[in-house]
């Protein structure tokens, strides 16, 4: 068997294609993805035939532990590049996720080493009403920042796979996760069966994040769907830019943007292909309302931010997140987000997923992918 090893944004994947439409490659994934006894990768992707002229192929995606996943943002870009370069699909094409799982059509575009992917509409965005008691009680909360223990800061969103997202005020929490923080993320991952993201908005169009991924069971170098989830929460909840540079632990930036869904629009959105322009202008954009940097705590910086966003109706939200809300002042409600009803407890998660509602925006990823090796294995 020949496997192609790809890298994208800090993630690495092994890819192959087959004429068989059915198969179970869980054992193969565990064997070849092992970083000591195998080739080493975050996941395995099998491209399979699909009987529809509008769909180039279907895929079967496996995490390194052999578990299946419906979507992986960075893997979707690698799959697109692989399929185009091996003559399996044109530059612009669509593929479908594995038919035994949630059906989803992914639209992709290949332009040299730059590949764009449309992950489609998000699902089920809501704020948490509570954190699992075992996650708090099991750990010594004295070693955890209070912001992590505030359920109102946590949001659940599905961008192909479920994610929890929490924006924090300290970049060190994202870049240098302590043992206590990582253990806390692990407990949340188990309780919600979701990936867990900590994010820090350095600017309105620059977000740092770290993702604890199920299937890997650790903080990974990058996670495309986690970046998508973080961008959407940042934009819809906190008023950050709809187009941003996301920086994972790998340091390899990825450009993302979200757009309102309009039937009949361009498959890759109106901003596709703007990567060079985006990179050139990203550093020139001003700081957003939720620039959580410590410099914003100065008495001179805060009023300018409040004034800048006053007309947009964000003053109360800004004051709250900068810690300026007075004790006597009535607390402002959480920013409005799409909701399927009352804020759910943990018991409602499965029911919500079984009756999923789709949001009103699509999210897009664009960046470089590289084929770094072609590997002959003893597996067949």
TrEMBL record:
<dbReference type="GO" id="GO:0008837">
    <property type="term" value="F:diaminopimelate epimerase activity"/>
</dbReference>
<dbReference type="GO" id="GO:0005829">
    <property type="term" value="C:cytosol"/>
</dbReference>
<keyword id="KW-0963">Cytoplasm</keyword>
<feature type="binding site">
    <location>
        <begin position="73"/>
        <end position="74"/>
    </location>
    <ligand>
        <name>substrate</name>
    </ligand>
</feature>
<feature type="active site" description="Proton acceptor">
    <location>
        <position position="223"/>
    </location>
</feature>
<feature type="site" description="Could be important to modulate the pK values of the two catalytic cysteine residues">
    <location>
        <position position="213"/>
    </location>
</feature>
<feature type="binding site">
    <location>
        <position position="195"/>
    </location>
    <ligand>
        <name>substrate</name>
    </ligand>
</feature>
<feature type="active site" description="Proton donor">
    <location>
        <position position="72"/>
    </location>
</feature>
<keyword id="KW-0413">Isomerase</keyword>
<dbReference type="InterPro" id="IPR001653">
    <property type="entry name" value="DAP_epimerase_DapF"/>
</dbReference>
<dbReference type="Pfam" id="PF01678">
    <property type="entry name" value="DAP_epimerase"/>
</dbReference>
<comment type="subunit">
    <text>Homodimer.</text>
</comment>
<dbReference type="GO" id="GO:0009089">
    <property type="term" value="P:lysine biosynthetic process via diaminopimelate"/>
</dbReference>
<dbReference type="InterPro" id="IPR018510">
    <property type="entry name" value="DAP_epimerase_AS"/>
</dbReference>
<feature type="binding site">
    <location>
        <position position="11"/>
    </location>
    <ligand>
        <name>substrate</name>
    </ligand>
</feature>
<protein>
    <recommendedName>
        <fullName>Diaminopimelate epimerase</fullName>
        <ecNumber>5.1.1.7</ecNumber>
    </recommendedName>
</protein>
<keyword id="KW-0457">Lysine biosynthesis</keyword>
<comment type="function">
    <text>Catalyzes the stereoinversion of LL-2,6-diaminopimelate (L,L-DAP) to meso-diaminopimelate (meso-DAP), a precursor of L-lysine and an essential component of the bacterial peptidoglycan.</text>
</comment>
<feature type="binding site">
    <location>
        <begin position="213"/>
        <end position="214"/>
    </location>
    <ligand>
        <name>substrate</name>
    </ligand>
</feature>
<feature type="active site">
    <location>
        <position position="72"/>
    </location>
</feature>
<feature type="site" description="Could be important to modulate the pK values of the two catalytic cysteine residues">
    <location>
        <position position="163"/>
    </location>
</feature>
<keyword id="KW-0028">Amino-acid biosynthesis</keyword>
<feature type="binding site">
    <location>
        <position position="63"/>
    </location>
    <ligand>
        <name>substrate</name>
    </ligand>
</feature>
<comment type="similarity">
    <text>Belongs to the diaminopimelate epimerase family.</text>
</comment>
<comment type="pathway">
    <text>Amino-acid biosynthesis; L-lysine biosynthesis via DAP pathway; DL-2,6-diaminopimelate from LL-2,6-diaminopimelate: step 1/1.</text>
</comment>
<feature type="binding site">
    <location>
        <begin position="224"/>
        <end position="225"/>
    </location>
    <ligand>
        <name>substrate</name>
    </ligand>
</feature>
<feature type="region of interest" description="Disordered">
    <location>
        <begin position="311"/>
        <end position="342"/>
    </location>
</feature>
């Amino acid at each position: 068997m020949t496997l192609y090893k790809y890298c994208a944004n800090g993630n690495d994947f092994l890819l192959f294609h087959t004429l068989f439409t059915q198969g179970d490659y869980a054992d193969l994934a565990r064997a070849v993805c092992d970083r000591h006894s195998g080739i080493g990768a975050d996941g395995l992707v099998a491209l399979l035939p699909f009987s529809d002229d509008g769909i180039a192929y279907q895929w079967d995606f496996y995490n390194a532990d052999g578990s299946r996943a419906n979507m992986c943002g960075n893997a979707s870009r690698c799959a697109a590049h692989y399929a185009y370069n091996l003559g399996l699909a044109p530059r612009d094409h669509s593929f479908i996720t594995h038919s035994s799982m949630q059906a989803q059509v992914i639209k992709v575009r290949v332009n040299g080493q730059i590949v764009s992917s449309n992950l489609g509409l998000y699902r089920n965005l809501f704020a948490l009403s509570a954190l699992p008691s075992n996650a708090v009680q099991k750990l010594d909360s004295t070693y955890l920042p209070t912001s992590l223990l505030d359920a109102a800061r946590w949001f659940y969103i599905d961008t192909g796979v479920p994610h929890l997202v929490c924006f924090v005020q300290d970049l060190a929490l994202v870049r240098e996760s302590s043992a206590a923080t990582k253990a806390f993320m692990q407990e949340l991952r188990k309780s919600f069966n979701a990936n867990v993201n900590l994010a820090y908005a350095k600017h309105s169009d620059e977000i740092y994040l770290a993702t604890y991924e199920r299937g890997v069971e650790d903080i990974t170098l990058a996670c495309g769907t986690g970046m998508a989830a973080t961008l959407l929460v940042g934009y819809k909840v906190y008023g950050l830019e709809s187009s941003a540079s996301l920086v994972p632990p790998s340091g390899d930036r990825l450009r993302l943007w979200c757009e309102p869904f309009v039937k009949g629009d361009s498959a890759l959105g109106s901003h596709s292909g703007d990567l060079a322009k985006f990179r050139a202008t990203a550093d020139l954009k001003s700081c957003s309302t939720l620039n959580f940097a410590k410099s914003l705590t100065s008495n001179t910086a805060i009023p300018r931010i409040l004034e800048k966003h006053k007309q947009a109706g964000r003053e109360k939200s800004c004051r709250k997140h900068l810690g300026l809300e007075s004790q006597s002042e009535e607390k402002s409600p959480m920013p409005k987000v799409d909701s399927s009803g009352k804020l759910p407890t943990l018991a409602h998660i499965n029911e919500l997923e079984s009756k999923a509602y789709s949001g009103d925006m699509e999210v897009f990823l664009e960046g470089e992918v590289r084929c770094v090796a072609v590997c002959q294995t003893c597996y067949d």
